[in-house]
């Protein structure tokens, strides 16, 4: 059974800092790994999707990497802004057409 | 185009009652999946539907059920509600639910409180 872990659970940084969020998973037989953003009381917004055969994906100030062999992914956020404050979740897409989510990292970017 | 729409947004029920939640996917999307989110357990997969057929089911009791209609709209039902069923219920849609490069699009969720 896939297990996905995110460290740290919470992170507070000053505006402008570059930061890295970590995600680890136990079963490397994944179809893809996705990073989502969730604002309080809201649904999830897909940020980046890395297919199993890819090593990284970039969108604006966001860069996500995937290392299947070590069961790790990182989300790099450059030049953080207060609007980036949210909970970030990673999820692996496995056989069975289901996502397995990590517990999330709650990010606070202070002005 | 319109996003994933979930209704109602908030729901309050008492133990023992049943509840039905609705999800309208993005136009053209045929796969709908449901997730339960609680502070203790995080996000957990409930089930996934494609072309009116349940393809996959998570580890939840039989009190949780769902269905999908020919227009891809989906409903989930929870019978004999328990206090522990209080959660944010999210649905997500995608074109086919089986391509490795398909993103999932989530609705805003239904917040269910069981008293």
Indicate the topology.
The complex is a heterodimer of chains A (111) and B (115).
Chain A (H helix, E strand, L loop, with lengths): L3 E4 L2 E5 L4 E7 L6 E7 L5 E8 L4 E4 L2 E6 L4 E6 L8 E9 L3 E4 L3 E6 L1
Parallel strand pairs in A: 2-11
Antiparallel strand pairs in A: 1-3, 3-8, 4-5, 4-9, 6-7, 7-8, 9-10, 9-11
Chain B lengths: L4 E3 L2 E4 L5 E6 L6 E8 L3 E9 L2 E5 L6 E5 L5 E5 L8 E8 L10 E2 L3 E5 L1
Report on the architecture of this protein.
- The complex is a heterodimer of chains A (111) and B (115).
- Chain A is mostly beta strands and 111 residues long.
- Chain A is 0% helix and 59% strand.
- In chain A, the strands form two sheets. In chain A, strands 2, 4, 5, 9, 10 and 11 form a six-stranded mixed sheet that branches. In chain A, strands 1-3-8-7-6 form a five-stranded antiparallel sheet, with no helix packed on it.
- In chain A, strand 4 (32-38) and strand 5 (44-51) form a beta hairpin.
- The radius of gyration of chain A is 13 Å and the shape is globular.
- The model of chain A has no long low-confidence stretch (mean pLDDT 94).
- Chain B contains no helices and eleven strands.
- In chain B, the strands form two sheets. In chain B, strands 2, 4, 5, 6, 9, 10 and 11 form a seven-stranded mixed sheet that branches. In chain B, strands 1-3-8-7 form a four-stranded antiparallel sheet, with no helix packed on it.
- In chain B, a hairpin with a 3-residue loop joins strand 4 and strand 5 (42-50).
- The termini of chain B are far apart.
- At the A-B interface, strand 4, strand 5, strand 9 and strand 10 of A face strand 4, strand 5, strand 9 and strand 10 of B.
């Amino acid at each position: 059974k896939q297990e996905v872990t995110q460290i740290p659970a919470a992170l507070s940084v000053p505006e402008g800092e570059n930061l890295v969020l970590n995600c680890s998973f136990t079963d490397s037989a994944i179809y893809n790994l996705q990073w989502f953003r969730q604002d309080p009381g809201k649904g999830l917004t897909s940020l980046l999707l890395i297919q199993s055969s890819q090593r990284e994906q970039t969108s604006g100030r966001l860069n996500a990497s995937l290392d299947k062999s070590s069961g790790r992914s990182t989300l790099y956020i450059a030049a953080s802004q207060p609007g980036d404050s949210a909970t970030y979740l990673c999820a692996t897409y496995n056989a069975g057409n289901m996502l397995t989510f990590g517990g999330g990292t709650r990010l606070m970017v202070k002005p | 185009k319109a996003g994933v729409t979930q209704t109602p947004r908030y729901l309050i029920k008492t133990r023992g009652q049943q509840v039905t939640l609705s999800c309208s996917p993005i136009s053209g999307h045929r796969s709908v999946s449901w997730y339960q989110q609680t502070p203790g357990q995080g996000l957990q997969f409930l089930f996934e539907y494609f072309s009116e057929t349940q393809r996959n089911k998570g580890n939840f009791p039989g009190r949780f059920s769902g269905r999908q209609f020919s227009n891809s709209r989906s409903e989930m039902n929870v019978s004999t509600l328990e206090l522990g069923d209080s959660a944010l219920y999210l649905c997500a849609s995608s074109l086919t639910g089986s391509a490795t490069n398909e993103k999932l699009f989530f609705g805003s969720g239904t917040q269910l409180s069981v008293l």
